[in-house]
Amino acid sequence: MFNYEIIQSLNDLELMLYRYIMKNADKVVYMRIRELADEAHVSTTTILRFCKKVDCEGYSEFKIKLKMHIQKNESNKINDDTSIIIDFFKKLDNSELEKKLNTLCDLIKAANNVIFIGTGTSGILCKYAARYFSSIGRFAMYIDDPYFPRNYKMYEDSIIIAISVSGETATVIDHISNLKRENSTIVSITNSENCTIAKISDLNISYYVQRERIGISDITTQIPVLYIIESIGKRLHNKVIDSHM
C-alpha cells in the first residue's frame, strides 16, 4: 500500500501523518477525519492530499484500503508452534529411512570426493555439511554458487549430495545433469520425492514437512535437513571406526 515511490513523494507534514498511521493503524481505521487530524497534528486538507497520493479518492476509501492492508498482513503471519518438527521426529522410526541413510554412508565411504550442492538457504546448509563431515574426518566440499566454474571432469567418481527444499532449483538441476555424465553418484535431500531433483538422483532422501512461504521467500524449517546431515556424519564416523577394529 505504501511503496517506495509513494513515501518518497510525501512532504514533511505528510510524512508525519504517515508515521502516525503506521504506529496506530488499528485505531485509524475507526477514526473520523477530524479525529485523525487532531491526533496527528495535521489539517484535514493534508489528510485528503495524503489520500490522493496513496491512490484513494477520499478518506473513506483510504480507511477501507488500510483495513484490507492490515488484514492481509495478519493472514501472512507464520505458524511458530513446534508441531511440524514434532511430527517429523515421530516419523523417524522408519526402516526405509534407516536403509537409505546406511546406503548413503556406504556410498560416501567408497567415493573419491564428497561434494554438497545447493543455493540460498540450502547453500548455507551445504557449507555446514561440508564442515561437519570434515570435522569427523571425511573431507568434503560444497558448491553454493549457481555460477561456479564448471570443470566437471575433476568431479569424476565423486558423490554429489544436492540439498533443495523444492527440488526444482534450475541451476542445481543443471549441475546434476552435467555431473551425471562424469560417473558421479547423485544423492538428493529434498522435502518431497515427487520433484525433478529427486527423480534424476540415484538416491533420494525426502523428509516431508509442511512448506512455508512469505512472499517469494521459502522459510520451510531446515531442522530435518540438519538432522539428516548430522545423522549421516555420525554413522559414517562409526562405520570407519568399525572397519578398523
Please provide a written account of the structure.
The model has no long low-confidence stretch (mean pLDDT 85). A five-stranded parallel sheet has the order 2-1-3-4-5, sandwiched between helices. Strands 6-7 form a two-stranded antiparallel sheet. The radius of gyration is 26 Å and the shape is elongated. Strand 1, helix 9 and strand 2 (141-143) form a beta-alpha-beta unit. The longest helix is centred in the C-terminal third of the chain and has 21 residues, at 223-243. The chain starts with a helix and ends with a helix. It has two domains: 4-75, Winged helix-like DNA-binding domain superfamily/Winged helix DNA-binding domain (Arc Repressor Mutant, subunit A); 83-243, Rossmann fold (3-Layer(aba) Sandwich), CATH 3.40.50.10490. The chain has 245 residues and is of the alpha/beta class. It has helices spanning 4-9, 12-23, 25-28, 33-40, 44-53, 59-75, 83-90, 95-110, 120-135, 170-180, 196-199, 223-243, and strands at 114-117, 141-143, 159-164, 185-190, 203-206, 213-214, 217-218. It has twelve helices and seven strands.
Write the layout of secondary structure elements.
Layout: H1 4-9, H2 12-23, H3 25-28, H4 33-40, H5 44-53, H6 59-75, H7 83-90, H8 95-110, E1 114-117, H9 120-135, E2 141-143, E3 159-164, H10 170-180, E4 185-190, H11 196-199, E5 203-206, E6 213-214, E7 217-218, H12 223-243
Helix pairs in contact: 2-5, 8-12, 9-12
Task: Sum this structure up briefly.
With 245 residues, this protein is α/β, with parallel strands linked by helices.
